[in-house]
């Protein structure tokens, strides 16, 4: 395992050693989650371009691709640069391109990295054309298509879709189309997720067809979100799937039925620092600076507060939830308002996050365990910045 310590070093680092709060990653669960989606996508006959915005870690990326650099998706140019330094040469920057950032894109292209950008306007396409002409090199670009009104992208009927394709094709920069079913994160249950996956595929394929009917070449048809990647049953016409949260999973995904709570690979270790029996509270040193303010389960059938509480071995403590957070304090209480368990000052606990991406972003790296052990096997740094 990348970053693994020697046996003697590992045994010297139990979970009681590092100062809390800290991010803990169970690499056995990471491997299992990776294998699950890899098998599914392989059965559907398409390639996987994992989105590394959740993990932001070279070591996690190595697990996804079997130790060798492969195609990846990133959410910042800082990620793209760090993964390029790590040997990755096929990278999709899946956030609408800011023309001001094109010099950094060109710098990566000159290094031999095929860095594709994303856009959904003629203004961005013209900026790409001008930068490509000035640099004397194409800038691969995907046109974002909106399949569910979630965020960005052209609708299929948008009059500028084909025009944007022509602008890019004119400078040899049209790489394909990209669709993200963002509303799938609110699709409760397999039936709704399959419907979202089918809509995502249908819109992506239709957009590619519309550009091809206009005489334009479309190589890449990219779709993906963690819910739709696990629910899709037919990806005919699609060339690749993107997903990122699946590597760690979180309580939002568990609440939607995409995974089980026992699949969550990321947790935050905190320490009990106070008791407020008159309020039914336990206080910890893990506030929103450790967990984030994400309350993604609030609209689900089961509200998990700021996170679900487990013991240090990872077993959920019945009815105990992180119900409140200030900057450096976490509040634990029971769902039914009864007295919480008597946990002495200094007791260490783990909190399972609502949103793995947001919680991981609060930490500089991960302490790593394997197969539920309490010995820390390594420390994996995260990539930060934009």
CATH superfamily of the largest domain: Alanine racemase
Task: Give helix % range.
Answer: 25-40%
Mean pLDDT over the residues: 95
Please count the helical segments: 12
Shape: elongated
Terminal-residue CA separation: 28 Å
DSSP strand (E) fraction?
15-25%
CATH topology of the largest domain: TIM Barrel
User: Element order, helices and strands?
Assistant: HEHEHEHEHEHEHEHEHEHEEHEEEEHEE
How are strands sequenced across the largest beta sheet?
A: 2-9-8-7-6-5-4-3
Q: Output the structural class.
A: alpha/beta
CATH C-level of the largest domain: Alpha Beta
The second-level CATH architecture of the largest domain is: Alpha-Beta Barrel
Organism: Amycolatopsis minnesotensis
Keywords: Lyase
Pfam families: Ala_racemase_N (PF01168), D-ser_dehydrat (PF14031)
Family: Belongs to the DSD1 family.
Explain this structure to me?
The protein has 386 residues and is α/β, with parallel strands linked by helices. The chain has two domains: 51-243, TIM Barrel (Alpha-Beta Barrel); 261-381, Lyase, Ornithine Decarboxylase, Chain A, domain 1 (Beta Barrel). Helices cover 30% and strands 23% of the residues. It is built from twelve helices and 17 strands. The strands form two sheets. The chain has an eight-stranded parallel β-sheet with strand order 2-9-8-7-6-5-4-3. Strands 10-11-14-13-12-15 form a six-stranded antiparallel beta barrel. Strand 8, helix 9 (226-231) and strand 9 form a beta-alpha-beta unit. Helix 6 packs parallel to helix 7 (160-169). The longest helix is centred in the middle third of the chain and has 24 residues, at 190-213.
């Amino acid at each position: 395992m990348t970053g693994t310590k020697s046996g003697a070093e590992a045994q010297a680092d139990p979970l009681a050693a590092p100062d809390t709060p800290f991010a803990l990653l169970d690499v056995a669960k990471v491997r299992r989650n990776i294998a699950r989606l890899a098998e599914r996508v392989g059965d559907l006959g398409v390639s996987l371009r994992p989105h590394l915005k959740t993990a932001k870690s070279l070591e996690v990326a190595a697990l996804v691709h079997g130790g060798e650099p492969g195609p990846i998706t990133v959410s910042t140019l800082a990620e793209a640069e760090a993964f390029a330094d790590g040997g990755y040469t096929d990278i999709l920057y899946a956030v609408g391109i800011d023309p001001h950032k094109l010099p950094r894109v060109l710098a990566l292209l000159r290094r031999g990295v095929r860095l594709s950008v994303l856009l959904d306007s003629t203004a961005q396409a013209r900026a790409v054309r001008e930068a490509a002409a000035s640099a004397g090199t194409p800038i691969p670009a995907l046109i974002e298509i909106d399949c569910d009104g979630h965020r960005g992208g052209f609708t299929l009927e948008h009059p500028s879709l084909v025009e944007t394709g022509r602008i890019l094709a004119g400078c040899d920069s049209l790489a394909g189309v990209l669709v993200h079913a963002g509303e799938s994160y609110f699709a409760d249950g397999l039936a709704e997720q399959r419907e979202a996956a089918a809509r995502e595929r249908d819109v992506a394929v239709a957009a590619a067809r519309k550009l091809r009917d206009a005489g334009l070449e479309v190589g890449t048809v990219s779709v993906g979100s963690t819910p739709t990647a696990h629910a899709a049953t037919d990806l005919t016409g699609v060339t690749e799937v993107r997903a990122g949260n699946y590597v760690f999973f979180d309580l939002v995904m568990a609440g939607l039925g995409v995974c089980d709570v026992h699949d969550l690979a990321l947790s935050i270790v905190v320490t009990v620092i106070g008791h407020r029996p008159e309020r039914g509270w336990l206080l910890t040193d893990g506030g929103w600076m450790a967990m984030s303010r994400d309350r993604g389960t609030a609209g689900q059938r089961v509200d998990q507060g700021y996170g679900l509480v487990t013991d240090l071995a990872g077993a959920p403590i019945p009815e105990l939830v992180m119900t409140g957070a200030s900057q450096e304090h976490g509040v634990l209480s029971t769902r039914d308002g009864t007295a919480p368990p008597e946990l002495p000052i200094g007791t260490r606990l783990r909190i399972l996050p609502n949103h793995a991406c947001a919680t991981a972003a609060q930490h500089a790296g991960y302490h790593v365990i394997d197969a539920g052990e309490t010995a820390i096997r390594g420390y994996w740094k995260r990539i930060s910045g934009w």
